[in-house]
């Protein structure tokens, strides 16, 4: 982030991995110095970006990390920020998923399976709602406007909020 500011950039891309970083960079075409691989250090990276005085943060991640962000989990590595299916299902219920489906979501083996089930049910509205919750958390942590990009390996950016 220091390098990005030193070369005069006022926006930064925080990404959880190479796939999400590449997908968002393809859209934004920002200089290479704007790309910051934050990995699992979500809250730390957001706060650091806020301290560096960027005007905007672009937060790029795949579903599991975006879901963890929506759940306000500050460190997203499974060892420190395990995603419990009950927790994810409860959030979806708060966002409008019916109770029977919430109960069924608790049986998912992975976050990816939750996403696939939502997509199969045509519930892109809930996928977007999770991204909006992630954006709210990111805004609060950084004190800056954040744009969240949900990325898949197959399709690239599928949601931008």
UniProtKB/TrEMBL annotation:
InterPro entries: CbiD, CbiD_sf. One of its GO terms (molecular function) is methyltransferase activity. One of its GO terms (biological process) is cobalamin biosynthetic process. Keywords: Cobalamin biosynthesis, Methyltransferase, S-adenosyl-L-methionine, Transferase. Its EC number is 2.1.1.195. SUPFAM superfamilies: CbiD-like. It holds the Pfam family CbiD. The keyword Transit peptide does not apply. PANTHER family: COBALT-PRECORRIN-5B C(1)-METHYLTRANSFERASE. This is CbiD protein. The lineage of its organism: Bacteria, Pseudomonadati, Thermodesulfobacteriota, Desulfobulbia, Desulfobulbales.
